[in-house]
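Encode chain A's predicted structure.
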Amino acid sequence: MPIPANRNALIADITHEFGELRPVLGSIAPKDTSQPVLEGQIKNTRMSPHDLVAYLVGWGEEVLRWNRHWEETGKPCAIPNAKFGEIARGFYAAYAGVPWAGLLQKLDSIYGEILAFLDRRTEAELYETVWYTTLTSQQAYTFGRLIQLNTASPLRSAYHRLQHWRQVDD
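Encoded structure for chain A:
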């Protein structure tokens, strides 16, 4: 799908990607979720399906935190600027003790909340307000684009990682 340029396209993109991925996640037996069988988020590493969902949950919670901050203060909040690998490892560790079924329930809940708050946001709030500018390239991102980068894109990537694993495993 092309990068969403408006609120309705963003909602459709997230809904589509979540709808593709969720049945695949639900079909994985809990006993198969802890082995590092997937290409990792960090170059030359491996991760488990559990780590993959922890990563999705972690970024989903970040998006919800950003939205709560904006609702409470009317201002964008700080975006993590740690190295990507540190962020991923932090998400894996944060949810390491959560059972597979509980992690999937958390994922469902988070994506429900994200779609609900997107219904309340205006086009201007999502796509006409710069939320973040990178320090190195000075690339400006709207809240809608940041949401897409941290929801729909990782959902799509997760789906493809799992499909590749299943093809190799067959």
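The helical segments are 7-26, 49-73, 84-94, 100-120, 123-127, 143-150, 152-169.
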